[in-house]
Write a structure and sequence with these properties.
With 365 residues, this protein is α+β, with helices and mostly antiparallel strands. 35% of the residues lie in helices and 21% in strands. It contains 14 helices and 12 strands. The chain has a 5-stranded mixed beta sheet. It has a 4-stranded antiparallel beta sheet with strand order 9-12-10-11. Strands 3-2-4 form a 3-stranded mixed beta sheet. The radius of gyration is 21 Å and the shape is globular.
């Protein structure tokens, strides 16, 4: 399949390190190998940043409150994160990628897209490129990586989850559309829990259900994401691997099971959002100067409030402090609140390594 055009089929690899932070810790401390491990804080407000596969067997997951993780796995070992080490290992991995292609689009410290359609080794078969890259990563870092290979980014991302850990899978142009049709939309990359719930209300539970909807319907109900959903439902994703991709913002939002009337419970909902935003910043080596709070009311009207600082934020607490102050400016709420979001923008990767950034993640570490 050539995405309905005469252009050559692209060869895209999505490389995803297996339990990256936890695996680095187990590599560097033999006493932790084979044991359930969580990278993060064990205090009451702590959050799991990463979990080893031994911990995942108990249901421990990243972004889970530490108290919940400990309840699921009483023998869970907590280790504080060492982002300087993770960044150094990530750079080693990036240098391996660069031996094969200049078309590298990092998504975070532990995953990236590679376009190997025309690669520096002259290798014709993308699955062999992926095997070689994974072997090089293991040789140089001692860590396992999984990979997905396909003709577009969406399917390569989906394929990398199929044979984890320490495996790879390919989704060919021939079987791509059928693979998508059988997949629950909740498993789609780019479809979060809130979007999956909205899709369910329209009878969209699988890729086949999504494929049955017209472009006009998807644009009406999902806005700018409509054309993307229309394409991936057919196994089509025209997005290029962009080595110069500049992320404009980092955000997180949550729709509540019940609308919130009062300021205190609404303010309490800001903390997990701030933690999620800052966790991405830490893992990506970026920060930002502008904090924006989004408030969506029960009638679906919404408001935003922003604050820009002179310097990039240096910890989760600064994001939370700004968001809390901004939320207070719209109280009393004109209607009950159904959704809150926090976005960090004016992003930069400069000045994040100086003394101002040495404060640890405020995750109970």
């Amino acid at each position: 399949m050539n995405d309905m055009s005469s252009t050559p089929v692209r060869k895209i690899i999505h490389v995803d390190m297996d339990a990256f932070y936890a695996s680095v810790e187990q590599r560097d401390n033999p006493e932790l190998r084979g044991k359930p491990l969580a990278v993060g804080g064990s205090a009451a407000r702590g959050v799991v940043a990463a979990a080893s596969y031994e911990a995942r067997a108990f249901g421990v997951r990243s972004a889970m409150p530490s108290v919940t993780a400990k309840r699921k796995c009483p023998d869970l070992i907590f280790v504080p994160p060492r982002f300087d080490v993770y960044k150094a290992v990530s750079q080693q991995i990036r240098e391996i990628f660069a031996e094969y292609t200049p078309l590298i689009e990092p998504l975070s410290l532990d995953e990236a897209y590679l376009d190997v359609t025309e690669n520096l080794k002259g290798m014709q078969i993308a699955t062999e490129v992926a095997l070689e890259i994974r072997a090089r990563i293991k040789q140089i870092t001692g860590l396992n990586a999984s990979a997905g290979i396909s003709y577009n980014k969406f399917l390569a991302k989906m394929a990398s989850d199929l044979n984890k850990p320490n495996g790879q899978a390919v989704i060919t142009p021939k079987n791509g559309p059928a693979f998508v049709e059988a997949l629950p939309v909740s498993k789609f990359h780019g479809v979060g829990p809130a979007t999956a719930e909205r899709m369910r209300k329209y009878g969209i539970e699988t890729g086949l259900d999504l494929k049955s909807k017209s472009l006009a319907f998807l644009q009406e109900h999902f806005g700018k994401a409509g054309p993307y959903f229309y394409g991936i439902a057919r196994g089509i994703d025209q997005r290029q691997v962009r080595p110069d991709r500049i992320r404009k913002s980092v955000g997180a939002e949550d729709t509540f099971p019940e609308d919130i009337d009062d300021l205190d419970p609404a303010t309490a909902e800001l903390r997990p959002l701030a933690e999620k935003v800052w966790r991405y910043c830490e893992t990506s080596g970026i920060s930002g100067k502008t904090v924006t709070v989004k408030i969506k009311y029960s009638d679906f009207t919404q408001a935003t409030r922003s604050r820009t600082t002179l310097f990039p934020v240096t910890n989760m607490g600064e994001i939370l402090e700004a968001a809390t102050a901004l939320l207070a400016t719209v109280h009393p709420f004109k209607r009950p609140v159904r959704l809150l979001g926090i976005t960090l923008s004016s992003l930069t990767n400069e000045g994040t390594e100086d003394d101002r950034s040495q404060s640890q993640l405020d995750l109970g570490i």
